[in-house]
Fold this protein.
Amino acid sequence: MLTPSKVEAAKNAVRQDLIDAGDAFPYAEPEGRIVSRSGDECITALLDQWFMDYGEQQWKEQALGFVENDLKTYSPETQHNFKAVLNWLNQWAVSRGYGLGTKLPWDPVYLVESLSDSTIYMAYYTVAHYLHSDLYGRAPGLAKVAPEQMKDIVWDYLFCRTELSDEVLASGITKESLESMRREFEYFYPLDLRVSGKDLMPNHLTFFIYNHLALFPREYWPKGVRINGHLLLNAEKMSKSTGNFMTLQETVAKYGADATRIAMADAGDGINDSNFEEDVADNSILALFTKRDLFLDLIKKEDELRTGEYNSFQDALFSNEIHLLVHQARQQYELTNYKLALKSSWYDFTSAWSTYKEACAAGGIKMHKELVRRFIELQALTIGPLAP
């Protein structure tokens, strides 16, 4: 009696039976014409291929536990997406035979797949200035080290806490340089925050987690990953063909650094796409100049303000509110919620000032000199990360 089976499983079983009986052979072809980036028509071929086994069960479970219990992701969506990727990601093809990259140690014809190969370069940043002093690695760095001296055993000493053995010293790198490089790495690692786009979550950023867990001791595993959406310009997708496009350099040249940063912060937080509005940047220029003039005018006329004890109502209310706003702004900065940090440090601070000024006028009293100075100082400090 035949055992019922799902179509998905039965198809594979029938296929294999036909191949085993010699009545069929595997065949595949593209669904349509394939054209390369250079515009040439491609001929496809089925070739042997290596795969990165990201679906290995023990490795996957370790990564899932790390994402769930240890990694700061700044939003539930980011953690959920990472766990979803880890649950479906399996084998990842190593398909490149040329270009920049690391050759597979057991098959040097192939290069390690580029999204996998570029996952721990943050560790390299910590010692790069010892190895070279230019962008291309041609000019020696502080340690006067040649590339061929940086053998695997040297990297293991720097990154994996192995001993400073005679074999490490045989590289010709001085003991002082080796110890300095290791101290530098240990000072900066683990990295506190990795920031990148949501399109890299299904590959590079997941590989980043996998490879840090595989290569480094636990104390060097990353602490946080912050995912951004894409950036819209005036509520529309940026596109050179439509003209709705602006580079960061053009934006700063047009609006200045501070107004650009305020508009960037105002564009939005989280994993969803943010919207840079030119009107916000434009208005921020005027607002910054107006606020600067206000501060200078208040300082210039501060001798006309009230001193002595705080008034029990207007002063206490204003003092409490600006200190609460400082607390809120700091919280949002730490959470990398820059739109909310901007709201507290810029818009709400300005609103609190207007309310205090009007309350004093309505009460027939002058504003308090010490409180006015405190307001200027605290707003300058809280807006500083965005508009220094």
User: Anything to note?
Assistant: DSSP finds 16 helices and nine strands in the chain. The radius of gyration is 29 Å. Strands lie at 50-53, 91-94, 103-104, 107-111, 194-197, 225-228, 231-233, 236-237, 274-276.
